[in-house]
Predict the structure.
Amino acid sequence: MRNSDRLPPRELPKRRSGRHRNPLSFDNWFGTPALVMAVPGTAEQARDARGESIGGRMADLVRAYRPEVTIRYGHTEGGEQTLAEALSGLDEHNGAPLSGVVVPLVTAPHTAVSTAVSSAVEASGANVRIAEGLGPHPMLAEVLHLRLAEAGLVRADRMRLISVVAPSETMADGVVVGAVGGEGAASAAGVSAVLLAARLGLTVLPADLDREASVEQVIAQLHDGGSRRPVIAPSALGPELPRERMERMAERFGARLGEPLGADGLLGKIAALRYAEILNSLGVEQPPTVEELPAPVGSRHRPES
């Protein structure tokens, strides 16, 4: 007899195979290694404007995509909630092919974070793999768009032929996608800049926020193109950015400074994708045995009742 007080069981979607399979899926035989997010900076730096932990918030967002996975996070600097603590205990993998996947929460190649993550993994002795960071990825352009729209600096729609908002002197007429982390960061930000320009119908250029000369050059280029209200949109979660220095630099070059990306559902989806990419790549290298393969799904292969 069915209990009417209970919710109906959730029906999970059937796993698809081949080129059109869900990119978030991975082989069931492989198991569910832990997903460890490496948060740049210290625990104190990695807090949003409301004082909430960016790592904790990202863990909640990623859990929506991977509810069956143990999700941890740790910071690359400081002595509180460290990455080393998050990796502890993962060396006991009981013969599993992998005990964890580390996903750095950076939107571009970041030399300091990469070094810190590699050192923590080596010191832990855990059987883990390090995934790529959150960028470059097409969804970063959408997150940048959302942050600018929330601040009232750009329109929220994607229409470029018809204006659905009244002209405003506060809206940006040029955007600088700012990257941090080293030489490769600005190149990665260039991908987001191209996609963001297509969304906004504005001139969008990448710049290295670690070098003021790069920012000055890009803003001068926007001014030469007729921009009078440029905005710097940081392509970073936040802990990597010294906010006061960013504000002084923006004021010096006559630009406004947008908010960092912070914790976002789309970023959580990218982190889940990076996790699945590692598992799928290892699944190809170490195929399951016949006994470990799941039973075929379909009307002609239903288990006998």
In short: The CA atoms of residues 179 and 235 lie 5 Å apart. The first helix runs from residue 54 to 63. The chain is about 35% helix and 10% strand. The radius of gyration is 22 Å.
